[in-house]
Request: fold
Amino acid sequence: MNTPVITAQGHPDPPPPGQCWCCGSTDDPDRMVHLGNHPEVAVCRPCARWAAKEAWEIEDRDKSGLLVSMRDRFRRLRREVRDRGWHRHPVFGRPLRWLGNRLP
Ligand SMILES: [Zn+2]
Reply:
């Protein structure tokens, strides 16, 4: 649900302040996530949530247990929804996106 839609890949110059380094969207710089050691690098909140989920998934690769397997099921379900485009459905899309933002 938080997969960046527009990419800024191949951008030769750093984006201006207020532009996401990941997807290229623009926002108030105070409402963006800045990297600790490189505050000039800012990402929008959806891209930051996506990166956090990716990091969580990488950490889960070395773990096992009931909670890890439940998170993996949610991740597979999210990918299935995204691949089928259900998150853009006019009726069910909004609740699916809401759920996707709150699940691992
Ligand atoms: Zn972004």
Q: What stands out?
A: Residues 66-84 form the longest helix (19 residues). The mean pLDDT is 88.
